[in-house]
Structures are given as structure tokens and as C-alpha cells.
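Tutorial sheet, problem 5. The two components below are modelled jointly, 396 residues in total.
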Amino acid sequence: MTGRIRNHKSLKAVLLALALVLGACGEDKQSAGRPRPPTENEPPVVATVPVEPVPQTPAPKAHPVTAKTKETYQWYCAQCHGVKGKGNGINAPHTAVPPRDHTKAAYLETRSDEQLFHVIKFGGLAGGRAPCMPRWGHTLDDDMIHSLVNYIRELCHCEAL
Amino acid sequence: MTTTTPFSRRFLFGALLLLPLLTGIGKAHAGPDVASLVENGCDACHRLEASIPEEGRKGPDLFFSGNKFQKQWLLNWLQSPQPVRPSGYTSDPGFLEGKPTVAVPHPAADAPEAQALTEALMQMKVEGLETAPPEVAEPLSKGLRFKIKILFERDYGCIACHQTVNLVGEPRGGVSGPTLLNAGDRLQAEWVYNWLKTPARFEPKSRMPVFDLTEEERIQLTRYVMWHKTEKEEK
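Model answer (C-alpha cells):
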């Protein structure tokens, strides 16, 4: 039974990844939300541990959240998502679909980092979400968008499931 | 809430404080247009030259006001200013809270002052803008307007930040960007057309996303923006 559910979940993830045509998304397997390996030099130690591994210090993110990331969030995103990311920006009362609350893990853990990246870069509509979210791909470069995804992960204190 | 203090007097103090700066401006852009704006203290809040640092501005840049605004609108607005940006200017400390603190309301000018200021503002131009194709000035059929409305609201999400109207003509849309409800009275089509292609030409860092529009989309969105007129205020 659980195998079926897992298979179903895996299939869904693959289909989603394909449908979204993620250029930067090399992983189409069931994504466990683990940060991407930062370097190739690291020996694959963890993979061989047979029992549940003791949580280690997480590997540094490839696109860390910096002061510039937060400034960018405040300059652009906060207009709708609010200064603290709670989805209560000045435009929020006027949008047909409420802006996403970036502090809500319950929803954001159901989104992969790739999905968040895609929506920021190509807009809500392209990701099957609210069209009020414009595309930022001609305003922000990919590095900044990745960094914003990481900032959203900080705001929600969550990772993709 | 109307101010009785003469427009020029209200800004005298600020203008005096900025005297050293004024001479610099005059040199960079010698012309009676800038001088008369400076005399009225406009430079206390607005940039009158692209070369002036952006920090400290409290209102929109005016060095391209002759490209951007319609003369009649300026004349009316200066005598009876109404907020163009419902949430205030983007640099306002209260902007992201929806509680602007500065320059609301903008001081009102009397008719002769407004006339003189309008003349000066219409001289403030940047060179080298793209000529808009004649279609941007053509009237918009209802069918095409609805089609472009989808482009505006659904494809590009402009509605999240700009007020326009819904299908029954009521205001609808976000408030962080300037309202477009009277854009057809306020703006010049050619400026809108140029803004949509290269906003950085006018504003180094707008809060609006940059869009890679096709030529057809740019024309259509310009027409849609310019369609928004209000007949109530003036004539």
C-alpha cells in the first residue's frame, strides 16, 4: 500500500518537473528537499550509512540569503507579500487571489524549490498559480531568484517535503 | 484642508536652503524651464536632472515631464493635486505600510503659477525616445479592449499593482503603482510605449518588473493604458 502511494507520489513529481520544463532542474527523482551538493569533491560518505544518519550540519546553500536578497524582497516582493512575508502587502486587499503567505509552512512545504523558482521567474500563470504574480525573469537574475527561494524557505522555516 | 499659503512662499525656505545646489542644476541644464521650477522649490522633492542622485527624492522625477505628461492634465493637477500613487511615492518611509508620510497632499498652485509651471514642465524632456507607431493613438474597440485586458491582468499581472477598471467600469487593482484610472488624461502614449520597453531610461530602479514584450503587446498595452480616461474632473 505504501509502495503504491510512494510510486504515485514519485510519478507526480516526475510529471510536474517535466511539465514545468525546468532548465536548471536536473533532478527528476522523488525530491526529498535535500539541498543540492555544493561541491563534487565531497566523498559520498552519508550515502553508505546503513542506519538512520545522525543529522549533520546542513551543507551550505548554493545561493545563500544575503542582505541583498532581503533588500530585493523588500523592494519588489513586499509590495504584495508584505514586509514580513505574511501575504499582507499593500496590494493584498486588491488582488483577486490573496498573495501567498511566505511564513506558512503548511503550503510551502508542498512546493519544491524548483517550483518556487519557476513561479518567480516565469510568473504565477506559468506555474499554474495566480496570474497576479508577474514574471520577474527579466528583472532578477537566476542567482537572485534562487536566493529568494532560499529566503522564502527561511521565512516559512520549511523545506520541500 | 486646502492650503492658503501661496505656492511659491511655501517652498521659499526649502529653495533658499538649496541655493548652492540650484546653481549646479542651472549649469547642467541651462534653461528657463529648470530655473522656474527651482524657484518654486520643486527640486526639494523631485529630480530635475537625471544626473542628480536618487537618494532623497520624495516625488517622481521631472526631468522627462515634457515627454510623460499631458499639458492640460498638468495644468489642472497643479491647481488641484490628487494622489497619483495611492500608496505614496516608492521612497516614502510609509510606502510599504500604505501610509505615505510625505508630499500628500502636494501643494496647490493658483492659476497663473500653474500655467507658468506647466510651461516649464513641458520643456523638460529627454532626447532619443522611440517614435510610437500611429496605432497607439487609435481608439480601442470593446472587443480588442477585452482581449488586451486579459494580457494586462492575466498574462502580465499588471493588475496586482495598478488600478484600472473592471468590466462594469469600477476601480479594480493594486495600489503600489501609480493609478491608471486617468492614465489617458495624464500620460502621453509615446511615453507609455517607451516606458514599457526601457523603463530604466527614465527610472533606474522601479519597483515594477521589466517585461520582454513583443512589439504588438507593447502597442496593445499602451493603447489599453491610454484608454483609461476620466471625463469627470475637467471638461
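Marking note: The radius of gyration of chain B is 18 Å. Full credit if you identified this.
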